[in-house]
Amino acid sequence: MVHLSASSLLLAAGILPNLALGAGLDTAAVALGKLYFGTATDNPELTDTAYVTQLNNTNDFGQITPGNSQKWDATEPTQNTFTFTNGDTIAKLAEANGQKLRCHNLVWHNQLPSWVTSGTWTNATLVAALKNHITNVVTHYKGQCYAWDVVNEALNEDGTYRTSLWYETIGEAYLPIAFATAAAADPDVKLYYNDYNIEYSGSKATAAANIVKLIQSYGVKIDGVGLQAHFIVGSTPSKSNQASTMATYTALGVEVAITELDIRMTLPSTDALLAQQSTDYSNTVGACVETEGCVGVTIWDWTDKYSWVPSTFSGQGAACPWDENYAKKPAYTGILTALGGTATATSTTTSATGGSTTSTTTTSSSTSTSTGVAAHWGQCGGSGWTGPTVCATGYTCTYSNAWYSQCL
Ligand SMILES: *[C@@H]1O[C@H](CO)[C@@H](O)[C@H](O)[C@H]1NC(C)=O
Ligand SMILES: *[C@@H]1O[C@H](CO)[C@@H](O)[C@H](O)[C@H]1NC(C)=O
C-alpha cells in the first residue's frame, strides 16, 4: 500500500478501481463468516465524544473489550467488596450498540490490588480468594460476555510457568481451578486462555497448547486461546506461521481469536513504516480469515491517541489503524482488504476535489447503495467507502486522507 499524497490521490481518483469492500471492518468480517471485528476501549476515553462516535460505529466494531475496568484491581479493590461501575459502563455501551463484549480478565499476575499481593496466603486461603473473585465477577456479568479471558499471561517466553503468586502458592492447578470456577458461574460463556508471543511456533506456543491439554486433562472446559498479537512493524510472524500456529490450537478442539492486536513502530512514523504496518496488519488478520476456528479479531484500541504503547515502550507508538487525529491510516485499508477477500474491481465515478485542510471531498460510487446522511464526526468519504457522502446540516465533509473524510 502506497501512502498517496493528496495531490496524487486527486490525479488518481478518477481512474482507481473501486474496491467494493463493504462498509467497514466488522461488516466485512461478518460477511466472511467471522463473529466480529472489534476494539478494546477504556473508561477515561468515553468522555471524548468524537472518540465514542467511532467506537459506536458498528460497521467497524461489532465487539468491544474493556481494557482495564474488569481487572482484579478494578473489580475487587478490597477483599470481598466488588465494584462493577466502570466495567458496567462499557458492558452497557456494548449492549446498547448491539456489540459483543469480550470480558477481560479474571486471573493475571498484574494489576492486582495490594490485599492480594501483600496478603499472607496458604494454598487453601488463596484458592478460596481466587474462587470467590471469579464466582462474583463472572456471576455479575453472566449473560453479557461472549467470552472471558480466564487466565492471562501465565507463561514465560521459554514456555515455563511465570513466577507469580498464583503459580508459587497453588501450582499449575490454579489454571484448571480458575476455569472450573468460571464454568460453574456461567456455563454458557466462552472461556479463554490469553497470552502474547503465542501467535507463532516456538516454546511459548507449545506451552500454551499444553495449558489447553492440562485444563482438558482435569475434565474442565476451555473454549478458546486468545492470541494477543502485540507486534512490531516489520517483524511480525508470517501469515502462514500464524495460521499454522492457530491450527495447533484448533486441533485440540478449541477456537482461537486475535484479542489485542496492535503493531507498533519506532517513531517517527514514515510512509514506509505505515505501508509495512498495513502489510503486517493484513497478514495477521489474513491468518484469522484463513483459519476456520478463528472467530474474530480485536485491536487494542483503534486510535493512536489512546494506545497503551507510547507510555509502555519508550520511543515507540503509532500502533493503531487510526492516527491520533482519528484519520484512518494505510493499516485500515490493509485490514479491510484482508477481510474483503474477493475485492471486486468495479469502475467508479469517484470524484474528489480539494486539498489540505478546509476543502471537501465528495465521493460517489457506482456500487454505493447509501442514501444516508452522516452525523457530526461521521465518515463521509474515503477509498472503498460506500456509506453516506452527505453531512448533516451545519457540517462539512472534510478531506482527511485517501481513506477518510469526516463531517466536521
Ligand atoms: C454511543 O452509543 C451509545 C449507546 O448506543 C449512545 O447512548 C451514545 O449517545 C453514543 N454516543 C455517541 C457520541 O455517538
Ligand atoms: C493447592 O490446592 C489445590 C486444591 O485446592 C491442589 O490441586 C493443588 O495441587 C495444591 N497446591 C499445592 C502447591 O499444594
UniProtKB/TrEMBL annotation:
Q: Where is region (Disordered) located? A: 347-367
Q: Where is the active site?
A: 260 (nucleophile)
> What GO terms are given for molecular function?
cellulose binding; endo-1,4-beta-xylanase activity
**Keyword Secreted attributed:** yes
The CBM1 domain covers which part of the protein?
Answer: 372-408
GO terms under cellular component: extracellular region
Record's catalysed reaction(s): Endohydrolysis of (1->4)-beta-D-xylosidic linkages in xylans
Q: Which InterPro entries match?
A: CBD, CBD_sf, GH, GH10, GH10_AS, GH10_dom
Residues of the signal sequence? 1-22
- Keywords (A to Z) from UniProt: Carbohydrate metabolism, Glycosidase, Hydrolase, Polysaccharide degradation, Secreted, Signal, Xylan degradation
Class of enzymatic activity (EC top level): hydrolase
Subcellular location(s) of the protein: Secreted
Major site of localization recorded for this protein: secreted
Instruction: Give the GH10 domain ranges.
Output: 26-338
Could you give a single Gene Ontology term from the biological process aspect? xylan catabolic process
Record pathway? Glycan degradation; xylan degradation
What Pfam families has UniProt attached to this entry? CBM_1, Glyco_hydro_10
Q: What EC identifiers does the entry list? A: 3.2.1.8
Q: Enumerate the SUPFAM superfamilies for this protein.
A: (Trans)glycosidases, Cellulose-binding domain
- Give the family from UniProt: Belongs to the glycosyl hydrolase 10 (cellulase F) family.
Q: What is this protein called?
A: Beta-xylanase
Q: What is the lineage of its organism?
A: Eukaryota, Fungi, Dikarya, Ascomycota, Pezizomycotina
